[in-house]
Specification:
The complex is a heterodimer of chains A (107) and B (157). By secondary structure, chain A is an alpha+beta fold. Chain A has one domain: Winged helix-like DNA-binding domain superfamily/Winged helix DNA-binding domain (Arc Repressor Mutant, subunit A, Orthogonal Bundle), CATH 1.10.10.10. In chain A, a hairpin with a 2-residue loop joins strand 2 and strand 3. Chain A is rod-shaped and about 70 Å long. Chain A starts with 8 loop residues before the first helix and ends with a helix. Chain B has a single domain, classed as Alpha-D-Glucose-1,6-Bisphosphate, Chain A, domain 4. The longest helix of chain B has 13 residues. Classes of the chains: A alpha+beta (107), B alpha+beta (157). At the A-B interface, helix 2, strand 2, strand 3 and helix 5 of A face strand 1, helix 1, helix 2, strand 6 and helix 3 of B.
Chain lengths: 107, 157
């Protein structure tokens, strides 16, 4: 049975539905804070707070462009999530191989 | 969007034999986990394995579909999961095709499964996003290349 040990910053960051949607949105393009706040109908402080959590998890990076701060998806930490899903995949692949051995032995 | 794990295997034995391996407690214990399975719809059973952080080692199950020798489904609850495992058997020339679908991942877990298996993120991140972003992010988490956005959006397709 897989171990869903979900504790790191990355999992905390994606545990929130709004932040997951923000990652989906930033996957499409780099965006300024204001555009994100508008897209998600959130106050500037609220969207900034979400961005802070995402940035601490390493999932977004920012840069100053004129008077705007732009945000970009930096998906490298999502490899932790690959590992979580891979764990389940490996579990079932292993069990299905065990089923093959079982069938062979009992035949 | 896919929020399920799907596996397809072919076994060189007729469906009846595979069905027995899927619906007999001793057989399930041999290839999956120790259990108190009984082949009737509504039967509640447990499978036990080694506990781990966030998981007491007990998978709580209930048989929801029993259609011999075609389909078996049971709930799969435990370790923060509330999901369903469905086994579908099809006779083929060389024996049996078994399709296992582990479905019902919700919320964050559903998003994670769908992003990785359904949305093509795994290949896209490894092939496109990662090479584009690596090296342009400073130690402070800021990136500087003004053209990065263009590069990333151009490489979407």
């Amino acid at each position: 049975m897989p171990r869903p040990a979900i504790s790191s910053d990355v999992f905390r960051a994606v545990a929130d539905e709004t932040r997951r949607a923000m990652l989906d949105r930033l996957r499409e393009e780099e965006l300024p804070v204001l555009a994100l706040a508008e897209d998600f109908d959130l106050s500037l402080p609220a969207i900034s707070q979400h961005l802070r959590v995402l940035k601490e998890a390493g999932l977004v990076a920012d840069r100053q462009e004129g008077r705007q701060r732009m945000y970009l998806l930096t998906p490298r930490p999502l490899t932790e999530i690959f590992e979580w899903v891979s764990h389940y995949e490996d579990f079932w692949r292993g069990r299905l191989s065990a089923l093959r051995r079982h069938l062979k032995e009992k035949s | 969007m896919s929020t399920e794990l799907r596996f397809v295997e072919e076994y060189p034995y007729p469906p009846d034999r595979v069905w027995r391996a899927l619906t007999t407690a001793e057989a399930i214990a041999d290839w999956l986990m120790p259990n108190n399975f009984e082949p009737r719809v509504g039967h509640r059973f447990e499978m036990r394995t080694k506990p781990a952080p966030g998981f007491d080692g007990i998978v709580k199950c209930e048989v929801t579909v029993l259609d011999p020798p075609k389909q078996l489904a049971f709930t799969w609850r435990g370790g923060g999961l509330d999901t369903v495992a469905t086994f579908t058997l099809e006779p083929i020339d060389t024996g049996t095709r078994l399709t296992l679908v582990h479905s019902g991942f919700k919320g964050m877990k559903g998003w994670m499964v769908s992003k990785i298996l359904g949305g093509g993120w795994r290949s896209k991140i490894l092939r496109v996003y990662l090479p584009a972003a690596v090296g342009r992010i400073g130690p402070d988490g800021r990136y500087t290349a003004a053209t990065l956005a263009n590069q990333v959006s151009c490489s979407h397709e």
